[in-house]
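Q: Hi! First time doing this. I have a protein sequence and I read that you can turn it into a structure. Is that right? Here it is:
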Amino acid sequence: MSTVKKILNVQSSARKEGSFTRELSQKVIDRFGGAHVVERDVSAGLPLVDEMWMGAAHTPADARSDEQKTALALSDELINELRAADVIVVGAPFYNFSMPASLKTWIDQVARAGETFSYTEDGPKGLLEGKKAIIVAASGGVPVGSPIDFNVPYLKQVLAFIGITEVEVVAAVGVAMKPEEARSEAEAAIAALSLAA
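A: Yes, that's right. Below is the predicted 3D structure, encoded as structure tokens:
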């Protein structure tokens, strides 16, 4: 029986129907039983980090103008979703050897100094420790973990940077060439997942 109470489900595939990452992410979530799930679909795009955002993020919270607070409102919301979750499921399809731009924008919104990581004398330190992430990746043919995979290694690096070092990967590789075999291999990985947070 899983002890996980809250799951954040971050999905980025442009496809609502027929998406391997959406389908497999749901199967991952189903393994955790009755956990509360917060859905965050970023596929339609998020605001890009701009000059106002950067200025606001580098201004102490008690000194921010109303305009700066507004600029960071979505980032605050996304970070709070991460903080509240025991497990983060990230649907990460391969688009041209990397991730969808929408998922990269989500990363830019949540990787914030003083909120999800801090600078110390020993270098950056992640602040979201004690959580688990499961990356659900699907590629047309790019082998996960290969030299041309600029998706999964980057996601693992970013997650570790903000303190989430317990990361498992469910990969459906070759969905354009051998979809059923890719699905079967991914489902076997889901069956083998640890359910502890």
